[in-house]
Amino acid sequence: MQCPKTSNLFFALTAALGITIAPLLHAGEIASVEVKTATVVKKQISETLVAYGVLEPDPDQILSLSLAHAGRINHVWVRLGQRIKRGSKLLQLITAPDARMQYLQAQSAVDFASRELERRQRLLKEQLATKAQVDAAHKALRDARALLDALRKRGLNRMKEILRAPMDGIITQLDVTQGQRVQANTSAMLLAAEKRLIARLGVEAEDLGRLKPGTPVTITSVFVPGVKVESRIRELHAMLNPRTHLVDVLSPIPEQQIDHLVLGSRILGHIQLTPHPALVVPRSAVLGDDQIAFVYTVRQGKARKIKVQTGLEQGDEIEIIGPIKAGDTIITLGNYELSDGMAIREAR
């Protein structure tokens, strides 16, 4: 029989040393780990390709305004980037003296051809000229009038000419300055349609095969994240842009969504690639590192370790590929404490 004093001394020592005495497991009892589980789901997922770019005028809606004849720029009313309305004054051109002289000479040629025709017609009545000579005089007058009309359409009949905007738009390029002398057909400026903008995005050449016209794109401003535009790819270019060394992808901006976007601003495009069926699980269910990945499934109350390959991630879910099927139960919490074949119990 144990002495009561000895027993009390033993418990006093264990308490002083911070030692607790836990009850031993009964014979045959197996340790288990408390876990939480989820079900493997099969669903359609798609990858998002991120591309940076810039907001530009639609190249199909840009007008090049050129000067029909030589002269001197007397006044320029617009500036680069300015928004203008149809009919607005753009610039004033003073006709060059030699161009004006060309018109005056054409005018004199018409007068001479007209008098010559009248003279030939009188001579024909007096039988001093032939019908062929009269026909030649008719042709000379027609040619002279045609030349005069062409010069008049080019504005050479006016000493000063004002170039006006043919449509609403934005000046995206200005090639002339006040006082500059210009030749005929000189490009003065580029005018882009105000309501027709595109997103020019750059993608890597290896990603081009995964894209096609009609692929959905969500466009946001780099500096104003709250601005979001839904569009689709319109064009895929077939060469690298020499400035960016990326392939250009064009997506139009719907007219009703351009009010908060500024021409030339930097943008970000999220391109939604074609979805495919996949097995997905919560991200916390996948363990491992860059070389190996695995999950734990539940079979007959025990954890079974299964190697998998990971695919696309969407939010808190990740695609897995391996000997697993939809409907299987996988462990999402407590899996760090497990080893293959360990008994588990589900948390409540």
Automatic annotation (TrEMBL):
Q: Which GO terms describe its molecular function?
A: efflux transmembrane transporter activity
Q: Name one GO cellular component term.
A: efflux pump complex
Q: Record's SUPFAM superfamilies?
A: HlyD-like secretion proteins (SSF111369)
Q: Tell me the ranges covered by the YknX-like C-terminal permuted SH3-like domain, including all copies.
A: 278-345
> Per its UniProt record, what InterPro entries does this chain match?
RND_pump_MFP, YknX-like_C
Q: Which Pfam families match?
A: YknX_C
Tell me the PANTHER family matching this sequence. Answer: HLYD FAMILY OF SECRETION PROTEINS, MULTIDRUG RESISTANCE PROTEIN MDTA
Name of the featured protein = YknX-like C-terminal permuted SH3-like domain-containing protein
